[in-house]
Structures are given as structure tokens and as C-alpha cells.
Design brief:
Blueprint (H helix, E strand, L loop, with lengths): L1 E6 L5 H8 L4 E6 L20 H7 L4 E2 L7 H10 L3 E5 L7 H4 L6 E5 L11 H7 L4 E8 L9 E8 L6 H25 L31 H10 L6 E6 L6 E10 L15 E4 L5 E6 L3 E10 L5 E2 H7 L7 E3 L4
Parallel strand pairs: 1-2, 1-4, 2-3, 4-5
Antiparallel strand pairs: 5-6, 6-7, 8-9, 8-14, 9-12, 10-11, 11-12, 12-13
């Protein structure tokens, strides 16, 4: 089968490599234009070897339009005469003319258990919302966002401390395997797409920088989920407020919820910092409902990522210091 791969980033790379090592012919790669590192704000995509590099090593023609949904984009696809488009994390909704350029249309490798988490950031929102499982779904592509019939699906457990970036790396090869299986079903005529239950649809919109602002009024478990969900981008962050000093932006890389302390007749101010001493220093932050998180790793503005204990030794907090988004 003549295939055109469309995708960008670490999640798509194993699928491209699997297609290149299969009996099928990859006649072209459509991927996002080259961008300077860090320039594509709003993208959660991690970069591994690189889709372009993988294709170049195998002599596969590469096309990098700003949009594939143009007459020029359709013409390029038609010139390749594909039987099927294989799409993974490409970042654009394909219009009918694009899908019609391939004999069998397109399939999409989507990183969620559809119909849950349709959209650009399914892994992050699954973690943020407290899902214990997620997976990969192969769907027939339609002009509607992630709404096509489901050809195959695989389920995995989400690790208790797993970040979006770590989970993406784990899901990517599963998506590649499932894509190959789905292609074989299409060839054999045995693919039986199952319609999605519209009543179960949830959205996973593209992440924004402000999604990383930590709301310490939420319970500790929810705060920790947000921290995990926002990696690798936009990262979870807050401001450190100290009396007599300008607030300092702090990225919180790792944190865990602590057992809820037994407090009678007193509610801790959210964002308040305390240092549990004894044998080991611990950076503890009060959250909503008088719950607590322990910050394990952080990165102050202009400095490197470091363990919280290292930060405490260099910048011991004083009474009244707190984390929060607003100015004092």
C-alpha cells in the first residue's frame, strides 16, 4: 500500500519508523515547517530524532506547508497518489479535499480512549482530570475533530507520578503497532469501524501558557496532577512572595501530596510555605481544604532545575513567605 505519513514530534516518530520498516511504501512525509527551538509556543510536542531526519535517511520526499488544506497541498498529495494517509499529532484538521486525495482516506493515531479527550492535548488533560487509564485509538478520519469511527484501541494504566511527556513516550510505540494492524485490516477488508458514543465526548483543547498557573486553593491531589500534566509544556509555575522582595517565578517540576494533617478549628492559608525539618529538609505548601504537597523539584527564574532541599539550603523561607499567582 502507498502511504503518506503526516505528523510531528515524538508521538509520531515510532509510527513513521514502523511504516518504513513494513512491507508498505511510504511515498511522502507531510510535517510541520522547521521552527527555532522554543519558538512554537503552545505546542506540547516533544522532539526526538525528528520526523524530517527519519524521512531523509530513507530518501522519503518531504513536504512542510504552513497548511495542507490549500490547493497546493492537495496537489502535492495527489502527485504522490497515496492509497492511505496515516496521521499522528499533525496539528491540523484535514478538509474533505485532503482526505479525498487518498484512495482509502486517512486514519489517525490518537492518544486517548476516544470518545474521551478529543483535541490537541489528550494526554495532558487525561492526567489533569485524574484519569487512571488512557490509551491509543485508531480512527477513520473525517472533517470533524477526532470524530471518526474507531478501528482499534489499546488501554494502559497511568502511573501515579507519570508526567505527560513520560506517558507520551510510552504510548507512541503502542500507537505505531496499532496503526500497522489497522492498515492490514483495511487491506483485507475486515476493518469494522465502531461509531463513537457522542454522549461520552470530552474535549482536550490545545494547552495555553496560563494553564500552567498553579491554583493553590485546589486540593493537593489536584495540584499534583496539574504539575504532572503540564510537562513538558507549559510547565506548572507560581510566584514566590517574600516580604520586602520582588516576587520570583518558580517552575514546580515535581511534587507529591502528603497525608492530610489533623487540624481542629484552624484552616491554613493556601500557598503558605512551611519547612519540615528533622533529619531531612522538606518544602511543604498548603493547598485547599488544609491539604499539603511536598515540592520535590523546582526551578527558580534564571536558574537551573534543582532539588527542593538544595533550594531551601540556599534560600531558606521566612515566616509569611508564600506561593501564589497574585502580587502581595
Amino acid at each position: 500500500m502507498r502511504l503518506v505519513m503526516m505528523g510531528t514530534g515524538t508521538f509520531a516518530e515510532p509510527t513513521l519508523e514502523a511504516l518504513l520498516h513494513s512491507s508498505h511504501q511510504v511515498v511522502g512525509l507531510v510535517t510541520q515547517p522547521d521552527r527555532a527551538v522554543g519558538a512554537e509556543r503552545g505546542s506540547t510536542r516533544q522532539t526526538g530524532k525528528g520526523m524530517k531526519t527519519i524521512a531523509q535517511e530513507k530518501g522519503v520526499p518531504i513536504y512542510q506547508p504552513e497548511s495542507i488544506n490549500t490547493p497546493e497541498g492537495v496537489a502535492q498529495l495527489q502527485a504522490w497518489s497515496p492509497d492511505l494517509l496515516v496521521v499522528a499529532a499533525y496539528g491540523q484538521i484535514l478538509k474533505p479535499d485532503v482526505l479525498a486525495a487518498a484512495k482509502h482516506g486517512g486514519i489517525n493515531v490518537h492518544a486517548s480512549l476516544l470518545p474521551k479527550y478529543r483535541g490537541a492535548a489528550p494526554i495532558a488533560w487525561a492526567i489533569y482530570q485524574g484519569e487512571t487509564q488512557t490509551g491509543v485509538t485508531i480512527i477513520q478520519m473525517t472533517p470533524q475533530l477526532d470524530a471518526g469511527g474507531m478501528i482499534g484501541q489499546v488501554t494502559v494504566d497511568i502511573g501515579a507520578e507519570e508526567t505527560s511527556g513520560e506517558l507520551e513516550v510510552r504510548l507512541a510505540p503502542l500507537g505505531a503497532k496499532l496503526a500497522l494492524e489497522s492498515i492490514e485490516q483495511i487491506i483485507a477488508g475486515t476493518a469494522k469501524p465502531m461509531q463513537q458514543d457522542k454522549g461520552q465526548v470530552t474535549k482536550a483543547p490545545k494547552l495555553k501558557k496560563e494553564d500552567g498557573i498553579i491554583d493553590w486553593t485546589r486540593p493537593a491531589e489536584q495540584v499534583c496532577r496539574q504539575i504532572r500534566a503540564m510537562q513538558p509544556w507549559p510547565t506548572a509555575y507560581t510566584l514566590l512572595h517574600r516580604q520586602g522582595k520582588e516576587p520570583v517565578r518558580i517552575i514546580v517540576n515535581r511534587a507529591v501530596p502528603l497525608p492530610t494533617p489533623e487540624i481542629v478549628g484552624w484552616e491554613a492559608p493556601t500557598g503558605a510555605i512551611s519547612v519540615a525539618d528533622g533529619k531531612n529538609l522538606k518544602l511543604v505548601v498548603w493547598c485547599g481544604g488544609s491539604t499539603q504537597v511536598e515540592v520535590l523539584e523546582l526551578q527558580p527564574a534564571g536558574k537551573r532545575r534543582m532539588a527542593a532541599v538544595e533550594f531551601l539550603r540556599g534560600s531558606p523561607p521566612r515566616e509569611g513567605d508564600r506561593f501564589g499567582p497574585e502580587a502581595s
